[in-house]
Amino acid sequence: MSWRNPQLRRDPAKVPVHPHLPVGRRRWWPRLRAHGGNTWRRMRYPLTRRHVLWTRGEYNPRNLAAEVRILDKRPLWWMAGLAFLAIAPLLTDDGTILSAASIFAIYAAINLVWMLVIGTAGITSLATLAIVGAGAYGGAYLSITYEWPWWSMLPVGGAIGLVFGVIVALPAIRLEGFYYALLTLGLAELCRVYVVQSRVFGSATGGMYGAATHIPDDLSDTGQLRFAYYAAFALMLCALALYRWVDGQRLGRLLRAAPEKNEAFAEAVGIDYRRARIQVFIISSVALGVIGGFYASHFKGASPSLFSMDSLLLMLAMIVIGGIGKAEGAVVGTLIVVAIDKVFIDLGALRLILIGAVMLVSVLTTRAGLFGIQAQFRAWREKKKSERRARRQEKGGEVVPEEATEIADKQAIYHRRFDKQMRDFLKTLVTDEVVEEHRLKPLGQHSEALSRLTNYFRRGPMADKYAVFTIVPMREYRVVALSGQRGVPPRLVNDRTYHSLGDAYHAVFLLRINDLLES
Amino acid sequence: MIADLPYVIVSALALWAIYGLLAIGISIVWSSLGMINMAHGFTFAVAGYGAWLAAQYVSDAGIVVLGAGILTGAVSGALIYAVAFLPLHDKPNFVVRSLIATLAISLLGTQALQWLFGPRVKSLPRVFGNTPLELGEIVITADKLGAVLSSTLLLGLVLLWMTRSRRGLEIRAMMQNPEGAALVGIGLRRTAMSVMAVTGALAGLASVLLSQTFFVSPGAGLQPLVKGLIVALCGGLGSIPGALLAAGLVGITEAATATWLGGQYVLMTQFAVIIGVLLIRPRGIGGLLDETRE
Q: How far is CA A1 from CA A288, A383, A430, in A?
């Protein structure tokens, strides 16, 4: 066989044409320009060490330009979203949308506080609406009967929430999982039945109405709706601050380290999880009671529908669609469900079916709701990528593009590509005649194919290189593999002994041929 | 007060039968599938409508109505299996996701029933006739007697099937250890299908029985679901004797409270009893299985 340039063996017609897609990490993602000390400067909240934005100064490996990369863009999204919510009511004077917006803000506040229990602490408590309802009923009752002002409903609701918090926190440290969920579900049902049957709480009129309100009546209708919305929006901001304060600090970390079924581990590392759970229950219950008081003041009363299973399911749908354990999940999930519930109000019962369907689809297809999609998609893409990498039969030591972006020394990539093409070519030279030729004459003048092969073998790296080891000169030889490291002795490859040097040379040759064909 | 005692006993027995049917369904599903079936109440409501449709368009003979209720319940159980269990059972976070999926089915299904049949309640024909049984002083109404007899019969059949048949053996193996059952060649999906169908049938029977005193309505499943859940919980999820015991306890409490204190206190005394039981035994009366399921 005559020699051919291995580079020319590629048939240009058969070379696959890759579209110019960016491969690997997204180097082309826009970054902030930076220079000098600016690369490392970060803005902090005053008087704390906390950063406003989590950034990192880097040098772009392509052109070595100094850049600042924002590692967590969520604060930007939050600012944009909250800014939108702050100006949105000024853009419309549609009464339906404005009242739906206030309902959204109140429910978002409830969901944020609930998320502390169901997400951060990981305890499925279904008594949330019962606590809100109790706070609302207590505030409304005092306001109607004793003419208390609207602002007194908030502390009254908080006090009722505190009592409820103690009631629901005590079983939480003893019962687990479903037992607790069902118990709290029962508690909510108990409250509903009590309120529906109790004459004091308006069993005849279907709720208590006529409580004091914070909404001034000297405003126009639209003005009242806008005022109500901004009050509810402020409530939501307070709930967000509470979420951030509990979830992002010590208590949240303790709770996240001690989820269900992991209590033993948490206890072993010194976390008093019972205390942490009681704390979070009491904090969230007081907050829910205050929200209940606000609810009564907002709607000028309370109705038993707060305790009903349907409202509970709607709240759960909001949390599940957004994603459990994330503040943005609570807010966006609430937005979606309230939008379906209030925008498609003409559909009647069908819109509840629609919400149920959205909830079902999201729970069947996503692991952690809307805001878990990104992580889930990345995991899926990694899986597919590694599957594809494993399926690539022709790889043979060549660097795949995904790997290439991770290797800093580009010379190594080209060397491996060349080596692969070289081996592909040499494999075609291995024939029975060549092997026979080597057996007859291990040393000396060889044909071109054989000398190409032996030259390639000689060039190989020292690690695991085969060599002949003389035990008794002219009588006993063994084949060894060099370690490639100083001071580390070679290892024996097999237990065969060869009686002439030529046989040993040929055995080494066969081993190398074998390795070449297998690579 | 003492004069009411026979009445209390009779209603306690009837309630025991109905709660037992519901709670055992929930309990078996939890222990074999590892799923809390919150759509059990939906099955209950659907079965009521199935029985009502059969009474309207086929015949209002007792056996037809009962059979239609049981059959609809089984079909509804299979539907829940196909929607909530089948796509999720090998996915991460199955327990919470299946709970939410069944809750979503419950929401969706209840609203769909309301949309299809309207919010007006329907009443079923008297399945067991109108002639009461008189034992000296005690008068047992036909529906209570029928409830006790038919549910005892169906429960007995189910327990016999669970202990004697090959499929029952598979279900019990799955209750003990799902992975172990799969390793010895028991098809989890097939077994789960039969579990859901059988528990659906039990809920269907309970629905027809309870509709003798109450009405069929889209939201009718909620109260029985909550009751069945708390009874299953009180008895210990996964324990059939525990569920039966707890059903008795809750039935007696309800009957006694309704007779001597008044209907509005029923839930409160029931909860007091259940909280008492759970504080003494946090996993319910017979509940040990929770640990073995790990």
A: 86, 44, 11
